[in-house]
Write a structure and sequence with these properties.
By secondary structure, this protein is of the alpha/beta class. 52% of the residues lie in helices and 13% in strands. The protein is built from 7 helices and 5 strands. The strands form 2 sheets. A 3-stranded parallel sheet has the order 4-3-5. The radius of gyration is 20 Å and the shape is elongated. The mean pLDDT is 84.
Length: 180
């Protein structure tokens, strides 16, 4: 179902962007045309570029072997049997430095996350960081994985960033899982 855009509202928002003197960028996508500030456009571009770069980096062959072995162990003791597709998602997500797993409700994303956490901790001997965009999603993630999950804003210290002395907490190492 297509949403009808109120032309007056569109013109009002367009004028606000122009007044910021930040510059605007107009992008055409199959889903529609978008207008955004140059700053936000650049941020989106850089984020996608870095995610693509990370998704092409892989762990060592030795670590790949260890990941395969950890997944075999997980599959042998888990009461939930992973499909071939799910096992591939677990392997790929751990063998690359960045992975995005999508799927509708009931497709096994949470099951995959549990397997990823187990295999990651078995191979890399490091902690995982679980985050979600909302408090409710973070609670559901904690319940499903048995791990502490926090909102993205809380974990990164973005609420505290309003305080001029606060620093945003960087995450430089380890497994980071962000769930819907």
């Amino acid at each position: 179902e297509k949403k009808v855009v109120d032309n007056n509202r569109y013109q009002e928002m367009y004028q606000k962007i122009i007044e910021k003197k930040d510059g605007i960028v107009q992008r055409k996508f199959p889903s529609g045309n978008f207008v955004m500030s140059r700053t936000l456009d650049y941020a989106e571009y850089e984020t996608s570029r870095k995610l693509l770069w990370l998704s092409k980096k892989e762990v060592s062959d030795r670590q790949k072997y260890k990941i395969d072995e950890a997944l075999k162990r997980y599959c042998s003791y888990s009461t939930i049997k992973l499909s071939e597709k799910q096992q591939t998602a677990v392997r790929d997500s751990l063998k690359k430095h960045c992975s995005i797993i999508t799927g509708g409700p009931g497709t096994g994303k949470t099951t995959i996350i549990k397997a990823i956490i187990y295999c990651y901790e078995s191979v890399f001997k490091k902690d995982d960081i679980c985050m979600a965009p909302t408090g409710k999603a973070a609670r559901r993630m904690s319940e499903a994985t048995g791990r502490q999950a926090r909102t993205i804003h809380t974990r990164l210290g973005l609420y505290e960033a309003e305080n001029e002395n606060a620093k945003i907490t960087e995450i430089n190492d380890g497994l980071i899982i962000i769930n819907e």
